[in-house]
Amino acid sequence: MAQLFAGTSGWAYPNWKPAFYPQQLAQKKFLSHYAAQLNTVEVNFTFRQLVKEATIQNWLKQTPENFRFAVKAHQVITHIKRLKATADFVPRFLATIEPVAAAGKLAAVLFQLPPNLKFDAALLQEFLETLPRKVPAAFEFRNESWFVDVTWDLLRSKGVAVCVAETETRTTPDVVTADFSYYRFRKPSYTPEERRAMLERTEQHIAAGRIVYAYFKHEETPEGALYAAELLKSSKTLQSSL
What is the pLDDT of residues 130-177, one digit of tens each? Predict the structure, then answer.
């Protein structure tokens, strides 16, 4: 069902106290408190290590049924092998997050490409062939040479989403290539006008029947979590008024 999932890239930040986490809250309870206010999180540490099943089971226990985890693909796939000859490692990586998928809590796997990896249609097509159709995936291209119709067409042929990443220096074209949309809002701050524009974009996607995943940054401060909570509240208020 089309809806908005909004959260941040990570949750284990003590410096979010007291604006987001209660001052006396123990860190082991951060995720359950986070999941009571936001409905998704982007897990980034999977970029550097393969997550253990015990860790995943702990995540699943601390989050409600409708919570979703987006998982960043391991650096071996995107930065070391650079999408080449990954047929052995991709299944290994996906096996580690299978419990999340089995629980119905997998938002998507995010493949974030390095900035110096330039457009290569054959490379992307070959890699996409290795991904199981059942795995929801999104690609973040950090070299603008990828921002061409051929890229979008390749993703669309496999139902893979474009990760629309906003930074201070670059914004990915907001192109729809899947039945869900994936946003990474990475700017240090957002004005009220910019946040209203976010709401308008997400509501357009929802009206078109797409799920929207939106992730804010701000590891250093609680702003990202507060922006996500505001976006969720605004979306629910708007939906209830229609």
Answer: 999 899 999 999 999 999 999 999 999 999 999 999 988 889 999 999
pLDDT at 238: 62
> Nearest-5° angle of CA 60, CA 24, CA 221?
75
| Encoded tokens for 17 | 């106290």
Q: Quote the mean pLDDT of the chain.
A: 95
Split into its structural domains, the chain has a count of 1
Range of the domain at 172: 4-241
CATH code of 99's domain? 3.20.20.410
